[in-house]
Request: fold
Amino acid sequence: MLLYNLLERALKGLMSIAEASSLVMPKLRNAYKAKQIMATISGDDLDAIASSQGSTVQNATAITMAAPTIPGAGAEPEVVGAAFAKAAGETTSLIAGEKGVFKVRVTAVNNAPALENYASYANQLNSAATPAVNTKVYQALKNAAEIEDNRANFF
Reply:
């Protein structure tokens, strides 16, 4: 929705400085904080980094691409994506996330079981999408219709 609003504003013309700064400042502030935190980190392995920052190494299980959420940190799609790019036993470099700076060691990768038949999955997706399609078709027809309401003249 935010992207749509930004595109809509861009089509109308340039944003005011106040509008642009309210969107950009939080991102710049987070990037600056992440840079400061990364500068204070010493050590290469997870335990050394955690002790230098006064925290502990935490385990996150059942991480999926469908729900890129880290327990205790919230939604961190960039961190989860970097973790999925590594094989078991590999460690990522420091990653500036939404809620902090992360370094991830992948302990295990459990691939989803292969399905012989994807028909039930396709049916599930179709049944979830059908009401949305019907609603959108109705709204499109309603918006495209040129109907003049003259009921007030007769009743």
About this structure: The radius of gyration is 24 Å.
